Amino acid sequence: MSLRYTAALSVMLGLCLAAGQAFAEDDARPAPDIIQASHQGTQPAPRVDAQAPEDGARPEEERPRLFGLGVFTRGGMAAYRAAGCGCVDRKTWRAGLGARLHVGSYLAAEFGANFGMMMLGGNFPLNGWEVAARWQPAPHAGARAVAGLYTRLGYASMQVMGMRSAGAPGVSAALGWSLELVPMLSLEVEAGAQRHFGSMAHWQLGGQLGIATRF
């Protein structure tokens, strides 16, 4: 019986010695950089991203685009004053659709076609088109009081079907304000005038409301 006890004690003693040696080897191993830095009261050096952009470089989407395309739709009413009469004896309303080419942040060229009615004791259908240059001195992102204001100058043509076979050429001018609803979509409100010449020489003074987008 004593021989068995002696063998068991020998085995237990050997296991204890082996465990102690293993713990001693773990303590002798060097600690990782983060653990060593925490023991020393310092933080590890930050990792430098090799793909970080250089100083002064901006992402591609932040660079201003030189050209841009857009579409717009607008409509409104105007008072019609014939050149040979000092009274306003009729009204017109029209709605149209057009395209716009932006050049930089301030200038744009646009072309639009419109259809409507002239009300003079009845409804006479009319149609026309307009080519104009648009200047917006301050983009929507500007913090100035004039942000969103724009002016438009162009050449316009109008034809009243059933009254004259030839169109009445003229010039147009408008002053408006553009409000950006969401990126690439704006609400436009403007007041303008048109002066037409020829056999249907007249003035038109009115306002229009429209929606425009830029791609």
Task: Summarize the structure in words.
The structure is a single chain. With 215 residues, the chain is of the alpha+beta class. It has helices at residues 2-28, 33-39, and strands at residues 67-82, 88-103, 107-119, 123-135, 149-160, 168-182, 185-196, 202-214. The protein has an eight-stranded antiparallel barrel with strand order 1-2-3-4-5-6-7-8. The chain folds into two domains: 2-39; 64-214, Porin, CATH 2.40.160.
- How large is the share of residues in beta strands? over 45%
Give the N-terminus to C-terminus distance in angstroms: 97 Å
Q: Indicate the radius of gyration in whole angstroms.
A: 40 Å
Report the mean per-residue pLDDT as an integer.
78
Number of strands: 8
Give a brief outline of the structure:
It is built from 2 helices and 8 strands, in the order ααββββββββ. The protein has helices at residues 2-28, 33-39, and strands at residues 67-82, 88-103, 107-119, 123-135, 149-160, 168-182, 185-196, 202-214. An 8-stranded antiparallel beta barrel has the order 1-2-3-4-5-6-7-8.
Task: Please give a handful of descriptors for the protein shown.
Porin, 16% helix, 215 residues, 2 domains, Outer membrane protein beta-barrel domain-containing protein, signal, alpha+beta
SSE order and pairing:
Elements: H1 2-28, H2 33-39, E1 67-82, E2 88-103, E3 107-119, E4 123-135, E5 149-160, E6 168-182, E7 185-196, E8 202-214
Antiparallel strand pairs: 1-2, 1-8, 2-3, 3-4, 4-5, 5-6, 6-7, 7-8
